[in-house]
Amino acid sequence: MEKVLDGIRPALRRDGGDIEVVEIKDNVVRVKLQGACAGCPLSQMTIKNLVETTIKRNVPEIERVETV
Q1: 49: closest CA among 6, 11, 2?
Q2: Do residues 58 and 46 touch, judged by C-beta distance below 8 A?
Q3: Which residues form the domain of 57?
Q4: Across the chain, which distance is largest between two alpha carbons, in Å?
Q5: pLDDT tens digits along 41-52
Q6: Number of domains making up the chain
Q7: Quick one: pLDDT band at residue 65, thresholds 50, 70, 90?
Q8: How far apart are the C-alpha atoms of 29 and 27, rounded to whole Å?
């Protein structure tokens, strides 16, 4: 999972943020946005359009991504 996130991190870091995997359970990845991304009003769009799409493309057994 970290290798997949490493592909996402440059986009998040350009905006002063980062991402951390908190838990993977029952085909659900729970992540925590950090830095500027944590309080961004567009964070849910980032999770769905960038993070979830990328993770599901690379790890097909993952059903969804949630923030904590």
Answers
A1: 11
A2: no
A3: 2-67
A4: 31
A5: 989 999 999 999
A6: 1
A7: very high
A8: 7
Q: Place 39 in a pLDDT band, splitting at 50, 70 and 90.
A: confident
pLDDT at 7: 94
Mention every residue, 6+ apart, whose C-beta is less than 8 A from residue 52: 64, 65
Alpha-carbon distance of 47 to 44, in angstroms, equals 5
CA 50 to chain centre: 7
Q: What is the CATH number of the domain that holds 15?
A: 3.30.300.130
**For residues 38 and 56, what is the distance between their CA atoms, to the nearest angstrom?**
22
Structure tokens at 7: 């592909």
Residues 6+ apart with CB under 8 A from 3: none
C-alpha 3/C-alpha 46 separation (Å) is 18
pTM: 0.87
